[in-house]
């Protein structure tokens, strides 16, 4: 049996995952990265996207939004703003959020308001990530 790495995903609401897994792939700001058992220690920022992991041949996926990751002592810990499994995602809500964000981006561009545009772009990225992940489980 292959060695495992402990995966912890924590949000402000509490622990989402605490499992021994085979591999973790995450959306780092510098690009996607993968971690196996006994990986060298490191820290990374996490961007909105898909956190995937394999456990006994099964691949699971979460939508994560912003945070940090630490790899140390055969454990990978994610401290993120939110984490959702595809089955937990409200697709209608995500579609409405996508539409609102796209409308706000257009309005911000017309008014040349960078703060509103940045917030709207982040909302759009979250909505798109939720939709991508919800489609993988339906």
Describe this protein with a few key phrases.
138 residues; Single alpha-helices involved in coiled-coils or other helix-helix interfaces; 8-stranded mixed beta sheet
What characterizes the major β-sheet? 8 strands, mixed
CATH level-two architecture of the largest domain: Sandwich
Whole-number total of structural domains: 2
Distance between the termini: 31 Å
Number of strands: 8
Order of helices and strands: EEEEEEEEHH
- Please state the overall shape, judged from the principal axes of the Cα atoms: elongated
Helix run count: 2
Which regions have little confidence, pLDDT < 50, spanning 5+ residues? none
Helical content, roughly? Answer: 25-40%
The overall pLDDT, averaged over residues, is 88
Structural class, judged by helices and strands?
alpha+beta
Explain what this protein looks like in three dimensions.
- The chain has 138 residues and is of the alpha+beta class.
- Helices cover 32% and strands 47% of the residues.
- It has helices at 91-111, 114-136, and strands at residues 5-11, 14-21, 23-28, 31-36, 42-46, 49-55, 58-72, 75-85.
- Strands 1, 2, 3, 4, 5, 6, 7 and 8 form an eight-stranded mixed sheet that branches.
- Helix 1 (91-111) packs antiparallel against helix 2.
- The two termini are 31 Å apart.
- The mean pLDDT is 88.
